[in-house]
Amino acid sequence: MRLLFVCLGNICRSPTAEGVMRHKLQLAGLADRVQVDSAGTGAWHVGKAPDPRTCAAAEQRGYRLHELRARQVQAEDFARFDWVLAMDHDNLRELCRLRPPQGDAELDLFLRRGGLAEHEVPDPYYGGADGFEQVLDLVELACDRLIEQIRERL
Ligand code: 4NP
Prior knowledge:
The chain has one domain: Rossmann fold (3-Layer(aba) Sandwich). About 45% of the residues lie in helices and about 15% in strands. It has six helices and four strands. It has a four-stranded parallel β-sheet with strand order 2-1-3-4, sandwiched between helices. Helix 2 (about 50-60) crosses helix 6 (about 130-154). The N and C termini lie close together (about 10 Å). The mean pLDDT is about 95. The site of 4-nitrophenyl phosphate has 10 residues, from loops.
């Protein structure tokens, strides 16, 4: 299976989801069966490492994100990935607009697909440290739920 996590800048929320999911898939013994990537709908940060606040908060919980580099979503992603999961409604709207007719990836909100009542991972970029912790809390929960679903599909 191939999963793509998408946010706006690809330097806060989606790289967090990528790093947390990779880590949890390793622990679940599924790392060789599931590929994970992340991308942004915007191009401002292409080629950059995740935001230092994102890296620091993740590292506190044992996830290393420093080596990731931002990229922008491409039309081919809708054919290359099985699930394309957006962090908020704006990202999802943009993905619906970008999706080519032949792209058959399943498109959804990341938290909704994870079965959470909350549907958006709030953008932490302009806020304080709490926002980065909240991102991690939501991402950890949703990744656990997604791994249960992945086990059922594989
Ligand atoms: P992300 O956060 O979408 O979670 O990576 C943001 C990063 C950068 C900006 C906005 C949100 N920005 O406006 O540059």
